[in-house]
Request: fold
Amino acid sequence: MITFDNVTKIYQRGAAPALDHCSLNIGPGEFVFLVGASGSGKSTLMSLVLREERASSGQIHVLGQDITKLSRWKVPGLRRQIGTVFQDFKLLANKNVFDNVAIAPQVIGRPRHTIALEVPEVLETVGLGGKEKRMPHELSGGEMQRVAIARAMVNRPKLLLADEPTGNLDPQTSVGIMRLLTRINQNGTTVVMATHDSQIVDQFRRRVIELDEGRVVRDQERGIFGMRSE
Ligand SMILES: Nc1ncnc2c1ncn2[C@@H]1O[C@H](COP(=O)(O)OP(=O)(O)OP(=O)(O)O)[C@@H](O)[C@H]1O
Reply:
């Protein structure tokens, strides 16, 4: 699903690499927590998977394609197969819940009648049934994140990247969001989640990949957040 082979990313000449000879392999159906101090390279890794950034050296395979060689016109096709969820939700403030989710299938040209069926279905799945007409400012943080997850899910991506999805949420709401991501994963979507949330990582016990200064320093099945408490 994702393979990094000796990947280095240097943003500016002379600066320390954001990723430094990084190798990892994430298979289909896995749920992976990506942890590490601020600046360790987690967001860079995700940007490379989405081809928002290009590797300085090394090879990256995503969904069976060598994306280091992927021509520019094929990048939108790659991104359409990947759902993304961020800490700041990234909802469109002037669009209601339905329209915020409907954007994803609209972009890939799904017919309007299919969208009219699929969007309420996915909103039901994330626990927002009946809230289609609400505007983002009428939602709680947890509800906003559910809208963002619904938008990420609606095209049934094989891969979901979540960058600090619980970063702005209280612990109880975070657990609700995690249950949702777990359910999405159980339905076959590979989930990679970058997080600083030690409670969540320790509670959900999944594979943990830890980065430090751009290098993979730990890769552990059913891991915990930090090495300290081992
Ligand atoms: N667009 C950019 N231009 C230059 N340097 C960058 C850029 N993006 C990230 N960096 C640098 O690359 C390194 C890794 O940053 P990155 O954002 O990947 O870390 P992170 O682990 O996601 O951090 P955080 O947990 O704070 O989000 C840092 O030193 C950062 O300053």
About this structure: Helices lie at 42-49, 75-80, 97-107, 112-125, 141-153, 171-186, 198-204.
